[in-house]
Specification:
Elements: E1 5-8, H1 10-30, E2 34-37, H2 40-46, E3 52-53, E4 56-57, H3 59-78
Parallel strand pairs: 1-2
Antiparallel strand pairs: 3-4
Helix pairs in contact: 1-3
């Protein structure tokens, strides 16, 4: 029996965020058994202290992910 692993990088996380928003990113990183980060940004995202209530991420957790992505996307657009 194998396990579900996911390789993360800034590009696939930003694509996930643009497609499904902060909640989609949280679901994307929460389902696998193992995560492999290939850059600093993906390590930052999985290191965020996400809180759960009733099987769903809290509004504060969603906002934290949203702000992190907004800051990164703004930085990319400025460069």
């Amino acid at each position: 029996m194998g396990f579900h692993k996911r390789h993360l990088c800034k590009e696939n996380l930003i694509a996930q965020y643009n497609h499904r928003g902060a909640l989609g990113v949280i679901e994307f990183i929460s389902k696998p058994d193992a995560l492999f980060c290939s850059d600093e940004f993906s390590s930052l995202i999985i290191g965020l202290p996400l809180k759960w209530e009733g099987g769903k991420p809290t509004a504060v957790s969603i906002k934290m992910v949203d702000l992190t992505f907004s800051n990164e996307i703004n930085t990319i657009q400025r460069n």
